[in-house]
């Protein structure tokens, strides 16, 4: 989402190549007929649907009020007309959404995760993915965070317990495999 890449945003990440890498991974998925699901954060005008999360991080409500420019997906990873965009209010793409049932209905057993932030949405989604019985692959070059410390610590922990942390090349190779 634009809020993580716009210098005027309090959520802006340091410069990173993760956005371009995420675009390449998504492009490989599309080229090989692998379904792509996007997520974005949005809250109602009063932020009540964000519960304690928006009280903890007030910038979330201010930035993702449902229609602002900072809530848009970046062009490098923008969905096509046929790709699902799930709207979420919390870190995990699974929490409070139809993601698990959508994936199960398509016979999907593995999720390839790209995006931001490693310590927030990526981690929460990977943990929920494994708890729902999916194999989560986190693409190292295609995820980013506000600082190297939390980024690397979370990748280390994800690999140790919850996901396979893979290179961009390995993810693209996986997406090319026949299923």
Keywords:
single chain, 179 residues, alpha/beta, Rossmann fold, three-stranded parallel sheet, two-stranded parallel sheet, 7 helices, 40% helix, globular
Mean pLDDT reading? 93
In CATH terms, what is the architecture? 3-Layer(aba) Sandwich
Encode the helix/strand succession as letters: HEHHEHEHEHEH
Remind me, CATH topology? Rossmann fold
Based on CA atoms alone, the radius of gyration comes out at 15 Å
Distance between the termini: 31 Å
Instruction: Give the number of DSSP strands.
Output: 5
Low-confidence stretches: none
What is the overall silhouette?
Answer: globular
Query: Total helix count?
Result: 7
**Major β-sheet profile:** 3 strands, parallel
Count of domains: 1
Mind telling me the CATH class?
A: Alpha Beta
Please describe what this structure looks like.
There is one protein chain. The protein is α/β, with parallel strands linked by helices and 179 residues long. The protein has one domain: 3-Layer(aba) Sandwich (Rossmann fold). It has 7 helices and 5 strands. The strands form 2 sheets. Strands 3-4-5 form a 3-stranded parallel sheet. The chain has a two-stranded parallel sheet with strand order 1-2. The radius of gyration is 15 Å and the shape is globular. It starts with 17 loop residues before the first helix and ends with a helix. The model has no long low-confidence stretch (mean pLDDT 93).
